Predict the structure.
Amino acid sequence: MTTTGAADWRPWGPRPVIAPGTRSSLARGSALSVAGLVAQGALRFLTAWLVGTIAGREWVGQVATAISIATFLSLLWPTSAGAAMSRFVARALGAGDVDGARSLARFVTATAVVAAGVGAAVAVPAWRVIGDGTLAEGLIVALLVVALGGYGLVRGSLFALGRVERAAASDVLTSVVGLGGLAALLAAGARGVTLTVPLVVANLLYVGLNWPAGTRHAAAQGPPRREVTTFIALTTVGTLASTGFLQLSQVVVRTTGDAHEAGGYAAALTLATPASLLVTALSLVLLPTLAEALGRGDRPAFLSQTDAAMRGIATVMVGALGTLAVLARVLVAVVWGRDYTEVADLLPVLSLAILVTTLGVASVSALNIESQRGVVTTTVASVSGMLVGILVWVVAAPEGGTVAVAAGYLAGVTVLAGIPVVVVMRRHGQRWSRLLLTVAGAVLVAGAAVLVERRSGWGPWLDVALAAAFAAGWFAVQRRDVRRVAGAFRGTA
């Protein structure tokens, strides 16, 4: 049974059909997407936290490395296929070409299935070499590759159809299932890669509930597919060099250090990355929204949505990640405890890296949607940034340890996010110079606050006071953009 039109938000309801529907506003869609990603983020966070606090630091390092390997391999086409769904299926539906949308969905899905199988085959030897694990553990990592790849593909199709409510509800449901499974395994005394099985089950359940219908009998021949395959190939390279770059940093820590250091790095990432869920959610809604705007020839809406997204990201993420950096010592002590004290030195660096990455999201989305030339630009930027980061790792990581790995990641993302922002400012005439200078000033203030904390020798109350002052000051400075962005999002259909 399938459904169209007034979409059923319930994950256990009829499967979604590739057909036109009612799309949420950018604000509502982003809010719902945040709810779903918060659920998924909670599953990832609690997986790391529960493993780290119950099983121990070495075990969380092993689990994090396994997840990083699986995530990296799932980026080899399947995740980018989901982005292609968001772009091309949404564009075809926006132009009223339902048959073309279904044909494209069938084609993209077929390529993603094949790619997921290849990634799973690679996962087994990759885990045995990098994680020094068993064949059985390698098979679990292979299943995780398939599950994560399927999740990315299916979620992209839901957003292409405007089914944000269903995506969010499915995220919540499957996250609860995953957490229940994790608790049961920990209670049973399970350790190591076995603790990723709940992630496998949760993501496969998401895929099973939301696999798109209406493509089985789609025409084998549809719109030209060269643009689609080129987009997926270029996006795959760019995603590997951006999202995959973060996962690679975890693998580098494990290969240049030991499970203890990998556990510390994983603990820092666990605290730094949840704040970026908002931007991830916005980008999932922004891609099809921008695609539809271009599909109907509404260039002003395309430009205004890009500007609103950039200002919203800067306003929220500087406040969130700057506060996180200033509160690093307190958060590490509360969340992870005494065994992770040095993680507080990693967290400000990783917070800045995540901030820089998120500042490029609106520009990357706009360039990827606008044209093939834009996709090439973002791909070149991503590859360039990753090469810069790898160079820093080669030179500094053997002696500098986890801090050097974090610094290399920061150097790389500065390049990969900076290039798209500059290109969009020049090509699209976006006036972000003042905004970026304000962001730079806020980063310097947060950095100064961290230095004062480290040199004063005072207790945690100083950290809390400085963090509160930073957050209050930042949102006071940005109050105009807060109102502007809220108004733009409310008026976005």
